[in-house]
Amino acid sequence: MRERIAVACRVMAARGLADGILGHISVRTGADEVLVRCRGPRERGLAWTEPADVHAVGLDGAPKHPDGLGGWSVPNELPLHLETLRARPDVTAVAHAHPPAVVAADLAGIAIRPIVGAFDIPGARLAAGGVPVHPRGVLIRSRRLAGEMVRSLGDRPVVVLRGHGLTSTGATPEEAVLRALSVDGIARLALAVRAAGGVLADLPEEDLAELPDLGGSFNLEVAWRHETTRLAAVPP
Fold first, then answer.
1. Alpha-carbon gap, residue 33 to 18, rounded angstroms
2. Measured between alpha carbons, how far is 184 from 164 in angstroms, rounded to an integer?
3. What pLDDT was estimated at residue 104?
4. Which residues pair with 30 in a beta bridge?
5. 39 phi, psi to nearest 5 deg
6. Average pLDDT, stretch 87-115?
7. 50-66 pLDDT, tens per residue?
8. Residue 111: per-residue pLDDT
9. Cα separation of 103 and 95, whole Å?
10. Is 28 in contact with 89 (CB distance < 8 Å)?
11. What percent of the chain has pLDDT over 90?
12. Where are the domains positioned within the chain?
């Protein structure tokens, strides 16, 4: 799992969801154990994440290893992960990123809506269910601030953080990142349509109803294989 989290972090960086040293992913691995991407003593950034950068903490944020984190430090926004996992038993993985297009679209008053159809079927379905916005552009570094974000998230898979980025959830780190990629893709298209003078409109209900569920093996496994192959072909 440490390797999977590291790869997911590298994919986020390679796809422009998290620049520099920003962004992190966590995965619940037990009733009171969470693996999370930490910052190392010689931090190089998300694009160079290795399994050694991933460490176990409890839901109270304390290191699970008796010797601590060995020179690594947990993210400042660790509460963002822990409060989401506490509140959402259906969630196993949490990804936090800072995609510029998502931030720009929200600040421009553009909601993440199902403006696409077969272009991105999982993304269209996600957007059709609604992508809420957390209105505070703060560093989510406490349980109180994280609780506010979780209330904004509600029962949805992704929440946009105003002036900040997004938090995406999933059953796996791969699913959480793919959902973030869909939201980012819709935000990019929306900005391009507006810039070209176009008017955004939701896909008609009858078209949404015609979109097939291509299944997890395609939406997740094949999609993620593409991301990891792309990552290997275009190193940081």
1. 25
2. 13
3. 98
4. 33
5. -100, 130
6. 98
7. 999 999 999 999 999 98
8. 98
9. 16
10. no
11. 92
12. 2-233
Q: Class of the 2-233 domain?
A: alpha beta
Separation between Cα atoms, residue 16 and residue 18, nearest integer Å = 6
Predicted confidence (pLDDT) at residue 234 exceeds the cutoff of 80? no
Least Cα distance to 94 among 40, 166, 162 occurs for 166
For range 15-26, the mean pLDDT: 94
Average pLDDT for the chain: 96
Angle at 191 between CA 153 and CA 15, to 5 degrees: 70
The residues annotated with a catalytic role in the active site are 77
Yes or no: say if 149 and 134 are a contact pair by the CB < 8 Å rule: yes
- How is residue 225 written in tokens? 């294989």
What does the pLDDT look like over 140-153, one tens digit per residue?
999 999 999 999 99
